[in-house]
């Protein structure tokens, strides 16, 4: 095949991916309790976060009609990650055309799915608002972020269970390495409506569900903590790694006693598909909040879906060979 | 990086791969009355059901999408001859509706479900326990096209030795309800690019392909995947946008290293809706302007329905079959094209002879998510 058209997409893949912005938006998690998780979380997320019904205080009133809780929280997290003033943007963000979106959520639209069917069965399909139609498709969160901020790069919705958050991070880094975007907005979000809570409780030993959103922005060869490669493994402890041991370890929910480290769900609660992104945002905030002499190792997952881990190292540190 | 397509399998309302290809050649419309729902309330009466192996036609087995997915993934891996215990094999599943049907039945009918069954890790690992990872990408009606793009990217980045890109979807009551909600009257027939078409009908099924780095001297692959372009319209939640679609096509051509005139066949998205077909036709005319006579264009949704997350890879396998056999199936349901399609060489009525070596496969989804793939078949 002729290769002349490849110039727009260099075959050499960008090696380094950095986290250049991050935000947490976890309603009601600003209180402090005893324990390492609470101390860590509140040290990096001092600002209170509004609930989905108050999202207009961050986003402005326009465009929120029939937006689900998950979409509202995701929008708030992205708005905060870019440091935007309250209200709707008048034009796309600078660089939006080369920006991709990857969102992780498992329960984002489950209440809408139930409501649509319940309304139809109680009367007819004409009783369902057509404005609720887009919410029947699980990718509504990712596409709504694109529409609001003008992100025309690849747009992915990951619904992959307990490792979904780090799967989204992994695909975001892949989009950069493949030259498909110059910047990737990665979001993890779950709602805590009654249908979502009911589904969360189905897991043996399931422990509730908390609404939460987090955002990390990934860019190649940029300033900011350096992202390693996401690796999947069967047990909660991350595989042995080359290089310096991590100074901060964030454990998968419920596994801190096995694998060591801080379990953020001790403070935040179970956030399922949001966990991996939430952990990464916390690690990025921690790394950028002072001189750190080592990186962070984060793990999410559970016994059913397996586990995924990734390292985040201070800007300027070489990522250990074998970790990327 | 070009990658080899070394294994494939699919299931549609028309049956397995061979049965589907044979029925497509005959121009069969696989639609039938819907089996499992209160169609009077929904405003949708017809669709393209996969016939389940167990129970009668009124008895809806649980987790149908995952069952078909498992069958196709296993079949594709068997054909490719790869061993996930010895090689790093990743699986990327593209789906529009996940197993949301199970959520509907659990919350409203009390049918039990497990939390882990909403995504497809368990379904895939039941037949391939040793794969490195199973990633579920829920990207509406272009989901398996996105899975294909990511699979090729993973191979190019050296992150896997082989990747299974797959798609699966079973109808959900909520999506059927929304389709009925926006139709004036129940759609009787799905007619891509047809003047006076009435709208879309849902299909079902699953599809899987195995991708591996292309090696010289190995067995000839079923096809070579040259590249997939991705874009997001960032324009409207449900309405397509020609600008975003054209961007995905140009990205695909650039990544594949082809010019529009190299492409001899297009498998269109062609949903039969008021908005998709003229928008897609306009985008094709723009991109293939100056390549007269231009590629043959056909669509399969009149035969197998809109299979949602599976649609992109199903169209891709039908493009492979068309180039291998030299015969392109006609667009079922099409007799009188819309004016916007003037100048496009739509295949109407009878299969068309085709000596194309390079084909383009279009898939566009809710939210303006577009995936356009370019493949080559050597004869």
Mean pLDDT of chain A: 90
Distance linking N and C termini of chain A: 31 Å
Secondary-structure element string of chain B: EEHEHEHEHHEHEHEEHEHEHHEEEEE
Query: What integer value in Å does the Rg of chain A equal?
Result: 19 Å
CATH homologous superfamily label of chain A: Thiolase/Chalcone synthase
CATH class of chain A: Alpha Beta
Please outline the major beta sheet of chain A: 10 strands, mixed
Q: What is the CATH fold-level name of the largest domain in chain B?
A: Peroxisomal Thiolase, Chain A, domain 1
The shape of chain A is globular
Using the 3D structure, state the CATH architecture of the largest domain in chain B: 3-Layer(aba) Sandwich
Total of domains of chain A: 1
The interface involving the most residues is between: A-B, 78 and 77 residues
How would you describe what is shown here?
Chain A has helices at 36-44, 56-59, 69-81, 110-122, 140-149, 164-177, 194-200, 256-259, 265-268, 275-288, and strands at 17-25, 99-104, 155-158, 183-190, 212-220, 226-227, 231-233, 248-250, 296-302, 306-313. Chain A is α/β, with parallel strands linked by helices. Chain A has one domain (15-313): 3-Layer(aba) Sandwich (Peroxisomal Thiolase, Chain A, domain 1), CATH 3.40.47. In chain A, strands 1, 2, 3, 4, 5, 6, 7, 8, 9 and 10 form a ten-stranded mixed beta sheet that branches. In chain A, a hairpin with a 3-residue loop joins strand 9 and strand 10. Chain A starts with 16 loop residues before the first strand and ends in an 11-residue tail after the last strand. Mean pLDDT of chain A is 90; it is low at 1-14 and 319-324. With 379 residues, chain B is an alpha/beta fold. Chain B folds into two domains: 3-213, 3-Layer(aba) Sandwich (Peroxisomal Thiolase, Chain A, domain 1); 223-376, Thiolase/Chalcone synthase (Peroxisomal Thiolase, Chain A, domain 1, 3-Layer(aba) Sandwich), CATH 3.40.47.10. Helix content of chain B is 31%, strand content 22%.
């Amino acid at each position: 095949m002729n290769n002349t058209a490849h110039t727009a997409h260099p075959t050499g893949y960008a090696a380094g991916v950095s986290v250049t912005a991050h935000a947490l938006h976890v309603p009601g998690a600003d209180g402090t309790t005893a324990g390492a998780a609470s101390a860590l979380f509140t040290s990096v997320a001092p600002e209170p976060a509004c609930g989905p019904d108050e999202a207009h205080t961050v986003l402005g009133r326009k465009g929120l009609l029939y937006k689900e809780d998950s979409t509202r929280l995701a929008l708030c997290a992205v708005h905060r990650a870019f440091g935007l003033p309250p209200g709707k943007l008048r034009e796309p963000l600078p660089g939006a055309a080369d920006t991709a979106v990857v969102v992780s959520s498992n329960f984002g639209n489950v209440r809408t799915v139930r409501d649509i069917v319940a309304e139809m069965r109680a009367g007819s399909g004409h009783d369902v608002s057509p404005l609720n139609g887009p919410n029947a498709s699980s990718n509504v969160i990712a596409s709504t972020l694109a529409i609001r901020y003008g992100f025309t790069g690849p747009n992915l919705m990951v619904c992959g269970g307990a490792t979904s958050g780090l799967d989204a991070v992994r695909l975001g880094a892949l989009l950069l390495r493949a030259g498909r975007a110059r910047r990737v907005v990665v979001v993890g979000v779950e709602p805590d409506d009654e249908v979502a809570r009911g589904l969360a409780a189905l897991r043996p030993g399931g422990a509730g569900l908390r609404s939460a959103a987090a955002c990390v922005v990934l860019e190649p060869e940029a300033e900011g903590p350096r992202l390693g490669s996401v690796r999947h493994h069967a047990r909660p402890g991350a595989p042995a790694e080359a290089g310096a041991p991590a100074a901060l370890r964030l454990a998968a929910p419920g596994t801190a006693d096995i694998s060591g480290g801080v379990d953020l769900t001790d403070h935040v609660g179970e956030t399922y598909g949001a966990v991996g992104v939430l952990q990464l945002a916390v690690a990025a905030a921690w790394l950028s909040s002072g001189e750190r002499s080592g990186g962070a190792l984060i793990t999410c997952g559970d016994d059913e879906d397996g586990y995924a881990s990734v390292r985040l190292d201070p800007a300027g540190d070489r990522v250990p060979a074998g970790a990327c | 990086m070009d990658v080899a397509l070394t294994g494939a399998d699919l299931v549609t309302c028309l049956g397995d791969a061979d049965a589907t290809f044979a029925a497509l050649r005959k121009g069969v419309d696989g639609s039938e009355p819907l089996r499992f729902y209160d169609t009077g309330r929904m405003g949708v009466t017809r669709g393209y059901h996969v016939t389940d192996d167990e129970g009668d036609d009124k008895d809806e087995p649980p987790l149908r999408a995952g069952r078909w997915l498992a069958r196709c993934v296993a079949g594709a891996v068997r054909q490719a001859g790869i061993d996930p215990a010895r090689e790093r094999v990743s699986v990327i599943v593209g789906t529009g509706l996940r197993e949301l049907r199970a959520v509907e039945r659990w919350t409203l009918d009390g049918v039990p479900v497990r939390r882990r069954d909403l995504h497809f890790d368990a379904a895939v690992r039941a037949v391939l326990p040793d794969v490195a990872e199973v990633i579920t990408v829920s990207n509406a009606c272009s989901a398996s096209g996105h899975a294909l793009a990511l699979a090729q990217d993973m191979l190019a980045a050296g992150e896997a030795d082989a990747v299974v890109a797959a798609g699966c979807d079973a109808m959900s009551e909520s999506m059927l309800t929304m389709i009925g909600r926006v139709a004036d009257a129940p759609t009787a027939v799905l007619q891509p690019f047809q003047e006076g078409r009435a709208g879309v009908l849902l299909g079902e099924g699953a599809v899987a392909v195995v991708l591996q780095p292309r090696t010289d001297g190995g067995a000839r692959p079923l096809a070579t995947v040259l590249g997939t372009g991705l874009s997001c319209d960032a324009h409207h939640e449900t309405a397509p946008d020609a600008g975003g679609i054209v961007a995905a096509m140009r990205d695909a051509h650039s990544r594949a290293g082809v010019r529009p005139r190299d492409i001899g066949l297009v498998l269109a998205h062609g949903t039969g809706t008021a908005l998709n077909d003229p928008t897609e036709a306009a985008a094709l005319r723009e991109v293939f302007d100056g390549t007269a006579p231009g590629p043959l264009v056909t669509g399969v949704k009149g035969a197998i329905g809109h299979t949602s997350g599976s649609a992109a890879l199903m169209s891709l396998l039908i493009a492979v079959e068309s180039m291998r056999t030299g015969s392109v199936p006609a667009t079922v349901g099409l007799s009188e094209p819309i004016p916007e399609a003037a100048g496009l060489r739509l295949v109407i009525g009878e299969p068309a002879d085709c000596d194309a070596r390079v084909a383009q496969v279009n898939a566009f989804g809710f939210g303006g998510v577009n995936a356009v793939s370019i493949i080559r078949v050597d004869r």
